[in-house]
Amino acid sequence: MAARDPGLIITADDFGLHVSVNLAVERAFREGVLTTASLMVGAPAAADAIARAKANPSLRVGLHLVLADGRATLPPRAIPDLVDADGNFGARMVREGFRFFLLPAVRRQLAAEISAQFEAFAASGLALDHVNAHRHFHLHPTILSMMIDIGRPFGLRAIRLPREAHTPAWLAPWLALLARRLAAAGIGYNDYTLGIRQSGRFDEHALLAALSHLPARGIGEIYLHPATQSGSAVSRAAPGYRHADELAALTSPRVLRVHHMLRQHGFRFGGFADLAHAP
Fold first, then answer.
1. What is residue 268's three-state secondary structure?
2. Which pLDDT value is given to residue 198?
3. How far is CA 230 from CA 14, 24, 100, 119, 246, in A?
4. How many angstroms separate the Cα of 172 from the Cα of each of 39, 166, 213, 219?
5. Is CATH 3.20.20.370 the right assignment for the domain spanning 7-275?
6. DSSP characters over 199-235
7. What is the predicted pLDDT for the residue at 170?
8. How many other CB atoms are there within 10 angstroms of residue 5's CB atom?
9. Is the distance from CB of 211 to CB of 198 less than 8 angstroms?
10. Are 8 and 221 within 8 A, CB to CB?
11. What residues are paired with 192 via a beta bridge?
12. Mean pLDDT of successive 10-residue stretches along the chain, which has 279 residues
């Protein structure tokens, strides 16, 4: 893809996970620099998140597919090889990745769950800005293929490319493959990502540093996990996350000043639908 004029997508993941996340997303959008949120359609506070998104129609909202370390949309009896008796996915992603490759029955159930999550998002009435997967599970080729094939009829136009500077050598080939497949499929994506190494601790200092060293060309995405509470109060799977510090960063007056300066220097801000068009 040819280098594009500079633009930045600032995303909150896990929208719908907890009411404190939803409150933070709304506040960071109205009072801060947030432009975008990724919705977990099967999460406990999804209905509240959808209502808040509709009350803020300029907020871009995408689908945050949950296929690990979270709750499924379909009942356990429909996808018994994917979830436990309570309908929860496990966190052993390497093991599950091999099962997706090797077991046709598991792949059928996986496709059914992905379809159900797209259907739930469509039922919300929200415009689909983008799609990504919890814990970047769309790096798995099987999940990526299903995401594209199933998502097209639902208006899929863009997918997050989790490519950060200093990517580990073992991950680089997977990211290159993902980018090639998205380009070949005519799906938009960001040129680079910031936030992977700071996940759960993207405070004001880290956000100011990121905004001060943005590339002069290309569409970037910064993603965070803001909430009004922190750690296990939001998610037992993220006891060390400083969610409230990330909300403070998004609404910081210093960050707002840098954001304004970037606009003056030609940076565009928005969602994937605004900036990360298909090649």
1. strand
2. 86
3. 13, 11, 33, 31, 10
4. 27, 9, 22, 19
5. yes
6. TT---HHHHHHHHHT--SSSEEEEEE---SS-GGGT-
7. 81
8. 12
9. no
10. yes
11. 220
12. 85 97 98 98 97 98 96 97 95 92 95 98 98 94 96 97 86 90 96 90 95 94 96 90 96 98 96 88
Residue 134's pLDDT is: 94
Which structure tokens are listed for 270? 């928005």
Give CA–CA dist 159/243, Å, rounded: 24
Instruction: Please give the structure tokens belonging to residue 181.
Output: 């497949």
Eight-state DSSP code of residue 59 = S
d(CA 44, CA 40): 9
Q: Which of 91, 133, 137 is nearest to 237 (CA)?
A: 91
| Count, residues in the chain | 279
Which residues does 55 contact at the CB level (< 8 Å), separation at least 6? 26
pLDDT of residue 237: 87
What confidence score (pLDDT) does residue 242 get? 95
Quote the CA–CA distance of 253 and 234 in Å, as a whole number: 25
Q: Is the Cβ–Cβ distance between 168 and 195 less than 8 Å?
A: no
pLDDT for res 175: 92
Bridge pairing between strands 219-224 and 192-194: parallel
Q: Name the pairing type of β-strands 7-15 and 36-39.
A: parallel
Q: Left, alpha or beta for 202 (phi > 0: left; psi -120 to 50: alpha)?
A: beta
